[in-house]
Amino acid sequence: MNGLGFAVEARDGGARSGLLTTAHGTVATPAFMPVGTAATVKAMTPAMVAATGARMVLSNTYHLMLRPGAERIARLGGLHAFMQWPGPILTDSGGFQVMSLAELRRIDEKGVDFRSHIDGSRQRLTPASAIRIQHLLDADISMVLDECPRFGEPEAAVAEAMRRSMRWAALCREAFTARPGYGLFGIVQGGVSPELRAESAAALTAIGFDGYAVGGLAVGEGREAMFAVLDVTAPLLPADRPRYLMGVGKPEDLLGGVARGIDLFDCVLPTRSGRTGQAFTRFGPLNLRNARHADDPRPLDENVPCPASREFTRAYLHHLVRSGEILGAMLLTWHNLSYYAQLMAGMRAAIAGGGFSAFAARVRADWAQGDIEPWGAVQQDGAEA
């Protein structure tokens, strides 16, 4: 195998299912990648992450280069051994974090200077160093360094950032060492401008990458604008390469992204929500902090194949969340990632069977129905003991 292997096995409208083969295993797509920014999926062990059905996780170049350092991770056997995750790993290049976290940064044609958010030390990230760091980490999929402008920037500034990112993408391609099972993804930028997105997609495909990401979305533009960008962008990307929508998102975003031909997603939402008391279910999100759950003996969602979803009562989960117990964060994170994995598996099966639209309609109908009747109301009606 030269680079990554990717095969589309079924199509249903714009949606597609396939297999992505890497040096550390094969991932059925469309797939959601749990976020393990600092070499850990928060509140989860690697075995728990695998038990959810997730097969690939994301870690972050920016955070790992600052602590504990890419060279140290390389000396300790690479990121897979370091975090005890045997499956594929994708690493973000760090460009988004430089934009969002650094208080002081200066971008020039060759890279970006910034201060560490940890100790204020001066750091520099260039296209070549970003690729070198990801190589040291042993990431199965590396991302090009890009400049992600903040939402609301003038179109001229968005265009300048996009064109600089395309020049950096070419430098990243030159710096990347091709080897079996490893790949480099380009990142389409251009804000919400169809013309800039088309220009970016053309520039990246001319360079040639193992996969293509759509970046710079889910930053405040809204779902309708995000889907409009995907409608324009996805058809311009090579059909025989995986497509990755970065930093997205809510379950509705995943359905809409898959319908538009996206294969990979990542987002902190299911893990962050789990740590703050929110659970995603087939009847929509639940806030376990709410008092209505205090006496509810039902499981969170018995249809999700996860012990956290089936074996603990809502009353107990409510108690854990309100008490600030660590176990509450663990169980809700476990459930949320399991729900996301189940949703993606349902989409894959629906695409393979030619029933994606019907599947999406059923899922949305359940969300619209809302949560199962609150326990107190059910008791009062005498419908359940």
Briefly characterize the structure.
With 385 residues, this protein is an alpha/beta fold. The protein has two domains: 262 residues, Queuine tRNA-ribosyltransferase-like (TIM Barrel, Alpha-Beta Barrel), CATH 3.20.20.105; 103 residues, no CATH class.
Description:
The protein has 385 residues and is of the alpha/beta class. Helices cover 43% and strands 19% of the residues. It is built from 16 helices and 16 strands. A hairpin with a 6-residue loop joins strand 8 and strand 9. The longest helix has 27 residues, at 326-352. The protein is globular and about 60 Å long. The N and C termini lie far apart (59 Å). The model is unreliable at 378-385 (pLDDT under 50).
Q: Indicate the overall shape.
A: globular
Radius of gyration of CA atoms, rounded to a whole number: 21 Å
Sheet bearing the most strands, described? 8 strands, parallel
Q: What is the number of beta strands?
A: 16
Write down the CATH class of the largest domain.
Alpha Beta
Average pLDDT, rounded to a whole number, is 94
**Domains, number:** 2
Summarize this structure as a short list of keywords or feature phrases:
three-stranded antiparallel β-sheet; 385 residues; TIM Barrel
